[in-house]
């Protein structure tokens, strides 16, 4: 995807497939606000288009398809993420991947660190409109439990930190201990969330006024 028109077309296709705006945000690696804007611009939204041209959101699209589409490349990136985690965070029992994109990354990390593998589905996957606080996420029972275990958290990008914060809270609610988070790309320069360090391979820095 090289331009906004490509993103709008992709958002329309995903909306036509029945994905919620939260899932569209996850698929396109953009914020919920950006996903809403893209869907509205595509004409797939049920609301009428405003007469005035809407102002675009302040966001950065991250396309890491070149990594995700290659098993070897994904493994190499997973090793780099594992290396970041090993530097200063001690040893974990479980590597928790945030669905969807975080799970294949976490699989590679868990293999490298010799931990078990957990999977968390965030509330944003159910989000279409309204308040995320009215929704809930959950851990998959097909993967390792986190209760009484030290956990690393893996995702692909940080947009606002909301999903990482939700996952940290969920692990603590289950009786686990979140040690650190790791992502490929951090759009906000987040160093820690609720006392849990956040590591990234790439930090995006905006220079100048928007």
Automatic annotation (TrEMBL):
The cross-references to InterPro entries, in alphabetical order and at most eight, read: GcfR_halob, GfcR-like, PRTase-like, PRTase_dom
Q: Which Gene3D superfamilies match?
A: 3.40.50.2020, Homeodomain-like (1.10.10.60)
Q: Name one GO biological process term.
A: pyrimidine nucleobase biosynthetic process
**Domain Phosphoribosyltransferase: residue ranges:** 64-188
Q: Which GO terms describe its molecular function?
A: DNA binding; orotate phosphoribosyltransferase activity
Instruction: Report residue spans for region: Disordered.
Output: 39-61
Could you list this entry's UniProt keywords, alphabetically sorted. Answer: DNA-binding, Glycosyltransferase, Transcription, Transcription regulation, Transferase
Q: Where is the composition biased (Basic and acidic residues)?
A: 48-61
| Pfam families membership | Pribosyltran
Please explain the role this protein plays, according to its UniProt record.
DNA-binding transcriptional regulator that functions as a regulator of central sugar catabolic pathways.
The record's listing under NCBIfam families reads:
PRK02277.1 (NF002620), transregGfcR_Halo (NF045507)
* HAMAP family documented for this protein: GfcR
Kindly provide the name given to this protein in its UniProt entry. Transcriptional regulator GfcR
Which organism encodes this protein? Answer: Haloferax massiliensis
């Amino acid at each position: 995807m090289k331009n906004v028109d490509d993103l709008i077309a992709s958002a329309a296709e995903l909306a036509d497939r029945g994905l919620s705006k939260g899932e569209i945000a996850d698929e396109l690696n953009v914020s919920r606000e950006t996903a809403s804007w893209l869907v509205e611009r595509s004409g797939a939204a049920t609301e009428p288009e405003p007469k005035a041209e809407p102002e675009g959101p302040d966001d950065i699209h991250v396309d890491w398809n070149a990594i995700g589409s290659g098993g070897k490349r994904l493994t190499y990136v997973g090793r780099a993420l594992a290396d970041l985690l090993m530097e200063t965070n001690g040893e974990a029992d479980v590597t928790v991947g945030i669905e969807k994109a975080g799970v294949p990354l976490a699989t590679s990390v868990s293999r490298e660190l010799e931990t078990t593998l957990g999977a968390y589905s965030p509330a944003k996957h159910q989000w279409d409109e309204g308040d995320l606080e009215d929704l809930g996420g959950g851990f998959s029972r097909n993967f390792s439990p986190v209760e009484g275990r030290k956990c690393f958290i893996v995702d692909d990008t940080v947009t606002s930190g909301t999903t990482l914060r939700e996952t940290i809270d969920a692990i603590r609610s289950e009786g686990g201990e979140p040690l650190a988070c790791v992502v490929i790309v951090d759009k906000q320069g987040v160093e820690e969330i609720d006392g849990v360090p956040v590591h990234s391979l790439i930090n995006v820095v905006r220079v100048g006024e928007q």
